[in-house]
Amino acid sequence: MSKPVLVVGAGPVGLTMAAELARYHIPVRLIDSTAARTDQSRALAIWPRTLELLDAAGCADAFAAGGLHAQAVGIRSGHDVLARITFGDITSPFRYLLMIPQPETERLLEAHFQTLGGIVERNTELTDFVDTGNGVSCTVRLADGKSTRMEAGWLIGCDGAHSLVRRRLGLVFGGDTLATGFIIADVHVVGLAMAPDELAIFWHPDGAVMFFPIIPGRYRIIADIGTVPAHAPDLAAVQAIVDQRGPGGVILSDPVWLSDFRVNERRVREYRAGRVFVAGDAAHVHSPAGGQGMNTGMQDAFNLAWKLALVERQAASPDLLDSYSIERSAVARQVLSDSGRMTRIVLLKNPVARLLRGLVVRGMFRIPVVRHAIASRFSGVTTRYDDTPLNGGSAWGLRGPRPGQRFVTDCIIGAGDMPRFTLAALDDAEARAMIARHARVLGPEICHPPDENGIWLVRPDGYVAATARRGDWLAIDAVLAALTLPCPDRIRACR
Fold it and tell me: CA-CA distance, 1 to 310, in Å (whole number)?
């Protein structure tokens, strides 16, 4: 572990990646070409699944205390509520959508990284790299303008949609750009007759306007505008759209951000090339519908970090890293599909299609199971890895999650400074013997199983790796043996 991991880009994804590696005592260097954190609110939403992972990392409390806890989202037409989804029934300790501006997210992540001994090297830019097979030789331009070379063990590009890392790898960023333009405004709002902790989407024949609470009295407003204008919108233009499409009586003032954008829907197929990885917007970009972008990227980081830590500690085979691209590219593909579908539903112009849209939404959202399913999908708790090579054996007839599914428990899976798997089983001599046998990768705590007739092996990121019938410890042992490496003699203590 003499060569550090070089993480490029200190946005939410890069900060998450670097902090997780530092938590696991993996040497890491985090660089960013900008002089300071962004001052634009940008990404606002942190969904429950991301909060669960931040909780395991040890910093969710700071986030929960620093943001607005949104309880619902409503689809409206004027004063008429067409549908409403609440988050209170999500199967998670975090039953809300956390609304927090991106600068604050970055500040909290950077503070967390600093508590782990890390620093962000700003005004520092990666300009070139070569994968040498046993490392990555990187050319870095420092704050004083001078270039230097560093030898990294691995390189992770968290450097955004225009990623140099992705371009140098020659990864195709396939997809489309929607023709429709949008405006975005962070403004003070009065006269909006709805709960201050609720998101609202207003449908109108001329388009949609959406209100997302940031802090009491201040909202993010997004609306489609047809073609993107030559200049960014002013407050009067946003007010005119709100007057036309909103419920009436809403007054905007004190803008802190006014801009426009077009929606890109793009992704790479492979997230890894040798010792180089991409994550976050460097690997996938999509519509802001559903607020999934930053969450997907941060979960990329959580997914890769524990695997890379086990490989760097020589506790797991390097083949473990192949699962990162397989798992996360499948998630991105689904997110792009969902967000694209939602965007196109919002942008419907045909009067008959809009009429049918309203009828379907009214009818479907009256069904509690539909509302719960949609809230759970947004929240990320239904994300699963069905086709990963990490899924081991599965025992039929047990009550509880199957391999690839998220494991729900009162235990905090993945906490601490080592990436360890967790057993969910009856706490007996056989379970303790299994932990002793695989102490390098199995945590000492045993969680209560959802079904006492079974055994669950849970990954450090909270997803089930394997299940077995009670007493079938050979099946669990086989999965762990396939994932891990023998303790090298040169490592004094294999923990």
Answer: 11
